[in-house]
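A student in our group prepared the protein record below, which I am reviewing. I have pasted the whole thing underneath without changing anything:
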Amino acid sequence: MEKSDKNISLSGNLHPIGAFFLIILFVFVGLLVGQFFGFALIVPIIGLDMTAISDFSENMMRDDAYRLPLFILQGATAFTAFVLAPILYLKFIAGISVSVLFNTKRALLIPLLLTIFITISFIAVNAIFIEWNANLEFPDYLKGFEHWARNAEDQAQALTMFLLDFQSPVLFLLAIIVVAILPALGEELVFRGLLQNQLKTLTGNAHIAIWIAAILFSAIHVQFFGFIPRLLLGALFGYLYYWSGSLWMPVIAHFVNNGLTLALVYAGQLSWIEYDMQEVAPLSWTNILPLAFIFVLLIYYFHRHLKTQKVDDNATFLS
């Protein structure tokens, strides 16, 4: 199978630069509309009067009663900005179907299975960068930025821990949808499907496009003490898409990355295993090196398999 060298035109009748910024505008408007739509959905739960809305805004991460509406708000925002907005852009501006990006004919079973194991091995290897980035200290002239970034990191961590305090199986299933499925589908649609393809058109270089899209992917999370590991994760997703030509590969990888964390957290809360996301000890080098070797072998075989696999009408595809 050849790499996805064929450019997918997303510009429509626009200049490629204009199309790039219009994609970002669509997502930004989607965020605003999603917030409004999400608040409309949770009004029956929290109440319509200003006192109730103000209390929700101030105590959303302190009151267990706000966990469900917060999930709904997060889910509505993610769906509108990262799923609905890109689909509308593709239909009305690019003039193509979203199915072109997913390219089901290239979603072969073996590469999909390899994607799962590549992601799991990469999670372990990426732990090195997670620990390093989390303990990064800035020079004195950037202490102001470090203080701001640390506060943003703490707030994001607090939100994550609040949402992942599963008090029922229903909340766990809701988290699978909001934290694993929607980000996997929506963020890959935006950052790999739209932005990476458009950047490839602009730069003429797939590798530059992959890394710029990965930088944007990491930056939008506004967690700079996790910037590097998320950047590397985004680059991995980018190459999985570039080599396969199907957006299903990074979507599956993204889902595995987020879903595995959710499953471990829930299993720890049920006392099935010993796991605390805030106190996970980094793996030793004796454990990381074999996993890094496995990751390299898997990614090499993934690339090699897709490069040599001939796609024809008689091949067996995952439908």
In short: The radius of gyration is 21 Å. Residues 1-5, 311-319 have pLDDT under 50 and may be disordered. The chain has eleven helices and no strands. The first helix runs from residue 16 to 46.
